[in-house]
Structures are given as C-alpha cells and as structure tokens.
Amino acid sequence: MDVADIPRVPDWFQGYLESEGIDALYPPQAEAVERGVTEGDNLVAAIPTASGKTLVSTLAMLSSIADGGGKALYIVPLRALATEKNEEFAAFEEYGLDVGVSTGNYESDGGWLAGKDIIVATSEKVDSLVRNDAPWLEDLSCVVADEVHLVDDSHRGPTLEVTLAKLQSLNPDLQTVALSATIGNADELAAWLDADLVDSTWRPIELEKGVHFGDALHLEDGTQSRVPVRGNEDQPAAIVRDTLEEDGSTLVFVNSRRNAESAARRLGSTTEPFCSPAEKEQLTAVADEIREVSDTETSGDLADAVEQGAAFHHAGLARDHRSLVEEAFRDRLIKVVCATPTLAAGVNTPSRRVVVRDWRRYDGTAGGMQPLSVLEVHQMMGRAGRPGRDPYGEAVLVAKSHDELDELFERYVWAEPEPVESKLAAEPALRTHILATVASGFANSRGGLLDFLESTLYAEQTGERGRLETVVDDVIDYLDVNGFLTREGTDLTATNLGHTVSRLYLDPMSAAEILHGLEDAEEPTALGLYHLVSRTPDMYELYLRSGDEEEFTMLAYEREEELLGATPSEFEDGFEDWLSALKTARLLEDWASEKEEDEITERYGIGPGDIRSKVDTAQWLLGAAESLATERDLGLGPDIREARTRVEHGVRAELVDLAGVRGVGRKRARRLFETGIETRAELREADKSRVLAALRGREKTAETILENAGHRDPSMKSVEPDADVTVDDDETDEPTTTQDQSNLGDF
DNA sequence: CTTCGGCCGCTTTAGACAGCATGTC
DNA sequence: CTAAAGCGGCCGAAG
After folding, report:
1. N or C, fewer C-beta in 10 Å, chain A?
2. Does nucleic acid strand C have an atom less than 7 angstroms from the CB of A262?
C-alpha cells in the first residue's frame, strides 16, 4: 500500500514517512489499515518484533488525535521502554504534537499530562492513574498496549488486563490497539478486546532459525553450514567467531547471571583479535566509563570484558552499565553480549546472530530446571537481524548431542508459541485489583464486581464463573476482615484505609503487614522498620545462601527487641521468608550506615543494580508506611521519615540534613561533616575555603553546592582550600571538571 | 618444602512495577 | 522430582 492511500491520517504524515525513508507500508501494516486502524477500529496486531508494530500504533494514535482532538496513551511494560518510545514519538513534536512520559520515577512537566497529545506510561502507572481518577483520562480516544502477550505473566499480567478493561469501560468509544508477539491464541485476545485481528509472521528481514551441533549449523530450511569448533573453543565461541568473520555481532542468551559473566570473560579472547586499534581505543574509553559508574567487582569485571570487545548484561548491573553496554553494542564496538532475559524484553538491541545457549532455567517453585517457553525463546530469537543493516538474521540454539539436536528442532524451531493465558484468578492479583475496583467506584457490590470481571480476558477464556466467584468471595472476606472495605448485604464500600491503600498502590497484604507491625511499636529503629517493609509482598526477596540461615538466626536473637511483631519460631512455616526479609533489612541498614557499595555487593552476593532496586523499593514502602501511620494516628511519623531518608541517601542519621542539599550525596555529606560542617544551616554560613577543602578542591562542585544550600555568595573565585582541613582521599579518580549529572537513580 | 594441576563435590541459580517530590562522587 | 557451571578444597606429582 502506498503511503498516500492511508485514510484519515494528518496531512503532514506522508511527508514525515518520506523523511524517514518509508514509501510503502509493510504487508501487516497495510492489513491493519484495511482493518480500519486509522478509522478508530479496535485492532490486535500479533506480528513479530521489528516488523513495524510501532508504525501500526502510530497510525492509530495520529489518526485518532487528528480526528477528534483526543489524546492517545501508549502502554509499555518497562520504564526503559517508556523512555525509548518517548524519544521515538518526540519526532512528532515538530508537527505540533506534545508527547510526555509518566512512570513511577519520572513524570514529564511536573505531572501535568493534561496538555499532552501522546502519553507513554507503564501499565502500573496507568492503573494508578485510573485509581486516582486522573481527569484527562476521559479525553483519551486511543490506547495502545505494547507487548500484550504479557497478560500471561502471573505477577504483572493482571494489572495490564484489568487496566485495559477499565479504560474500555470508562470510555466505550475508546479505540484499543494491542500489539503482541506471535502467539498461539491471538484470536482470543481479539475477541476479548472486541477487535479485528492481524496475525502474521511476516518480517522485513529474513530470520533463519537453526541448531548448532558438532561442526555444523543445521538450519530450518534443511540446509547446513559448516561452523567448526576449533581448539579449545566451545560452541558459542565458534559461532561468535564465524559471525565475526562476516563482520557481524552476536547476542548470546544464557540462564544465569554468573553464566553471563563467565561466558563474556571467555568470549573476550574470541572477540579481541577482531577489534581494530581504533576500536580498542574506543572500547577502553567505554570501559573507563563503566568503572566510573560503580566501584564494585561486577563493574570491574564488565570493564575488563568490554576492553576485549565482549560484555555481559543482566539485572544486577546498574542502569548506567546497561545503557553503556547497549549503546556500544548498537555501535558495533562490542562484538558480543552475553545476556540473561533482561535483554530479550528490554530496549531494542538487534544483532546479526542470536545464540540461545541455555534452554532450561532454574525454577525453585517447580523444583529444578525448567525448559523455557517457546514464546520466550522466539522472543530472544526475534532479536536477530537488524532491519536495513543486515542482509538476514540467524538465531541458533546449541545442542550437545544428536538427540538434543532433534529435540530442539521439535521443541523450539518448528514449534508454535503457546497460547497466552490470563492469570487474573490468582489471589494476590485479585486482592489488589478488587480493592482498587471498589475504591475507585467501578463496582460497589459483589455482583457489580463480578460483572466488571466479566469484561476481562479471564472471563473470555474460561466462560464459567465458578472458580472466579470462589476466589472473589475469599478476597472480599480478606479485605473485610482487615478493614479495607465493609459489607452491607451485597454492597461493598471501601473504608478510608482502603482508599489510602489503593491510592498508595500498595498490595493490601503489605498494608496489613505494615499496620500490624506498627501498631505496638513504640520507638521503632531503622532495622525494625526495614525488616517490616522487607517482609511485605511488595519487596522482592533475597536468596538465602548456605550459612545465611545460621547467621541471620543469630542476628534475629541479638536484635530481637528491634524487630516488630512476633518472631516466628524456627520450625514454623514462613520462618525462612522472615529470615530472608531480615537479610534484606540488614542490607538496607548497611547502606544507611554508609558501608561501601563494594562491601555490600560482596557481603550479600548481589550486583550494584540490586542495591539500587532494594533501596528504591524500601524508600517507596517506607513512604507508604508513613502515610499509613499518619492515617491511623500512630505518631510514628518522625521515626519512619528518618529511616526513609537514611536509606534514600545511604547515610547515618547525623547526615540526613546535609544529604538533603541538592548535589550532596553520602560521600560529600560525610566529608563536610568531618570538617565540622554538620548541618545545612552551617553549610549556608560556612567558610568557603573550608568547604572547598572538604570537597577536595573542586570549585565547580563547591559553587553548585553552596548555591543549592542558599549561601549568600557561592562564588569560589580566588578561594583557596583551607590547608588545615584534611580529608581522606581514598579515591583515585582525577579531579574532574566535567559535571557528570547522572542521578542516583541511574546508579 | 613449595607449587601447580587435576579432580571431586558442594553451592548456586531471571526479572523489576508502584507514592511523592527532586537529583551522586 | 528433573541440571549444570563454577569454584574451592584436596591430593598427588613435579620442581
């Protein structure tokens, strides 16, 4: 289809497409237009990644905005994707459209999304906006749900499902466009959303799947190519080398962080000979940047690998590490990235070849190694082939025996992805969504609730109410008993507490746990509070290693006084979870006692990125705890606030005031304190040469900080550092004049 | 007496959203 | 209930 023939898109759109080098639509896109995406019709597009899904959504959003002046909402599963999409859509600002992002940690323009035409948000954020009754929601005329196949996810799927159902019921004229990977039952999704279906496996660039075994690559079409394993190479190394000989890069998916790291280390010797001197120089620069992000073992290992043209990528990395690796890989500087599934679901990092080395992954709940789903493997494989740059893409599984070769072909290469199934009937999901549905007025009786749930994918797929009804009744009981809602006959009303919990976006069970723990707390310590929020279902658990059980049982006895609520017996069910929460609490306490990052990562066996995510969650939950304590008049506000500010900045109590100054973090606050500047007020009046000395002579930094503290005259002109002030200078980095303004959240 | 290499057995194991109000070293 | 890589400890042989 010619771009000129697309109905109802704004006039400038054709010019825009041409400027992007697009003169004809891909077949699935053309089919979407024929099904009426530009005319406000609902659509489910189940097509492979990188085959133009974004353009389908753009067609829908732009035509919908042009048609009635409404707004479009683009829902993504990850914050990183929200940023990526926002940057992509920012191109439309030139044509007079306003684009904004809204996620938990970032809201464009002070939260005033009302004036935006296109809003990008995570599903949880949209859910929260619906709960808080954001006024602009009624102006929505188009909603796009990216990666809808994630409704299958037991943890986060139900949120997406409920949110889409709520948006549709808020505004029956709303156009819904759902983008999905190729799945077994796209027709069911279409039926649920009352949408037309475009179901296609068409790709703009050929993808050949295959299995490597012995010295050969066995491809889907029956052909084989020789990819011999030489010397002490393993199979992935042989494939990576073979790809490099054609000047292509490789993405290797493995099943654990440790495997990713060790595979990257090994592959370094394969990639190094293929890096030109100029590339080596650039790689060294990237490696230096990586070392600067964090002073930990993980960081150093990554930098070492990068110097050789290899890298690993997993969730233990800091956000900056990840984006440095992704960027260098896209620039073809890094030749191979060994990754856990983070990269398959995350931002766009295509590669000539993809190797799926491990096809089984440990799963504690299933009691051992479990095969990956076809959908997941296909998603990884779909990363092969960069449109417009590679002639084709190849995705390869690795077999160690002839039997495995056959099995992999059967199981993944020729297999259809499994159908997507709603996980809404699980109790934890319903707990939070039922409360929210009642609190935000979507339903005010048992019947109303069931009617609403009737509009979800779950109802579409099961057809019978029985199972759902039982769970719903259990959940209503739970919410009633814990004081989140009240029942009168079949009528349901959310209590004040219920409203608060729903607004705070807290799992009701977390709220109950927190309230229960706070109720008879008199002077809660930081550790006690950290433990309380750590044992909440909203906090992701740390793994207990061998020896940990003993260590933390001891700690539990030593500091029993501080721990809130009853200490469970060692033989009780749930004792392990309780201990694991204690481990998390201890980690947070260490962080809030100014323990060094590398000491923490080593002690708890985690990566720098993990500290950040724990700290983030704790901060959020303590904020919620403070609201709950206020709501209940428990008078613990100051204690909770102090614990929260301490984790937020990673400092002891005496530095909380100083660390609150913009530009002053845990390290600078400590150094200022050591020189006798102990509070924000003292900093405001401080002797400048003293401040400069405390900051080890960095004038620009000192000026910024004094300005932020409200100093009368922050200028550092002709100020010399006070020679009497000594600061411990354990860091080796050169005084920088470049102001690195990445933030704590990027850490 | 020290050092190196190989083998055996024990240990460990993916991911990451949200309130609110602003930003490290 | 299922696996497999990596690492540390141990042992023996070589230096």
Report:
1. N
2. yes
- Average pLDDT, whole number, for chain A? 89
Q: Which CATH number fits domain A427-503: 1.20.1050.80, 1.10.10.10, 3.30.450.150, 3.40.50.720?
A: 1.10.10.10
Phi-psi region of A228 (alpha: psi -120 to 50; beta: other; left: phi over 0): beta
pLDDT surpassing 60 at residue A249: yes
CA–CA separation, A183 and A192 (whole Å): 15
Instruction: List CB contacts of A734: < 8 A, sequence separation 6 or more.
Output: none
- Is there contact between A364 and strand C, defined as CB under 7 Å from any strand atom? no
* Cα A147–chain centre separation: 14
A656: its two tokens: 């909380």
Instruction: Choose the weakest-confidence range: A147-161, A239-253, A660-674.
Output: A660-674
In the DSSP assignment, the letter for residue A418 is P
CATH match for A3-199 among 1.10.287.3510, 1.20.1050.10, 3.40.50.2300, 3.40.50.300: 3.40.50.300
pLDDT at A21 over 90: no
Q: Provide the pLDDT confidence category of residue A738 given band limits of 50, 70 and 90.
A: very low
CATH of domain A655-746: 1.10.150
Q: How do the domains of chain A map onto residue ranges?
A: 3-199, 207-413, 427-503, 508-650, 655-746
**Cα gap A314→A298, rounded to integer Å:** 11
Domain A207-413 has CATH 1.10.1200.10: no
Q: Which nucleotide is nearest to A370 (CA to C1')?
A: C2
pLDDT of residue A739: 36
Q: CATH for A508-650, among 3.40.50.2300, 1.10.3380.30, 3.40.640.10, 1.10.10.10?
A: 1.10.3380.30
pLDDT in tens, A383-441: 999 887 888 899 999 998 888 899 999 999 999 999 999 999 988 999 999 999 999 99
Using the structure block, give the residue that is written with the tokens 């077994």.
Answer: A184
Q: How many angstroms is C1' of C12 away from CA of A262? A: 29
Rounded to whole angstroms, the Cα distance separating A427 from A430 reads 5
Give the Cα separation of A617 and A392 in Å (integer).
42
Question: Closest protein residue to C1 using CA and C1' atoms?
Answer: A367
Instruction: Between A161 and A292, name the one with better pLDDT.
Output: A161
The set of strand C positions with any atom below 7 Å of a protein CB reads: 1-7
